[in-house]
Amino acid sequence: MSRSLVETFLGAVVLAVAIGFIVFAYTRSGVATVSGYEVSAAFNRVDGIAAGSDVRIGGIKVGSVVERSLEPETYRAVLRMSIDETVPLPTDTTAAVVSDGLLGGKFIDIQPGAEEALIADGGRIAYTQSTLLLEELIGQFAFGTE
Hints:
Layout: H1 2-29, E1 36-43, E2 54-57, E3 60-71, E4 76-84, E5 94-99, E6 106-111, E7 123-125, E8 127-129, H2 134-143
Parallel strand pairs: 1-7, 2-6, 5-8
Antiparallel strand pairs: 1-4, 2-3, 3-4, 5-6
């Protein structure tokens, strides 16, 4: 009887430690979405970007992707992003889909412009650059096509 009680107690301790590790990892990883104002941007391709993907300026996370959708008139992929309200974006800001390395994940890289006017909540980033496809680049290099 006492052995069963000790095993149950140790199992509960192991479970509590595992939950603690999960909570610690989640709070330190920066995976949580950033609350703030929303902007959108239309891209030709958004391969590798999903809801929750990072939005960064200079490598620092300033937002996250909230939603992906398809614009039916132009067939462009539209990303809705939540940007930290302490980071105002000028109207000539650019957004690009970039990789975190050769095999890393993808994120949205924001390059703020120099205009004094700012993008309002619900506004749109007009200048975008879509993701580069590694397969296309390899094919162009291998076969010498443009």
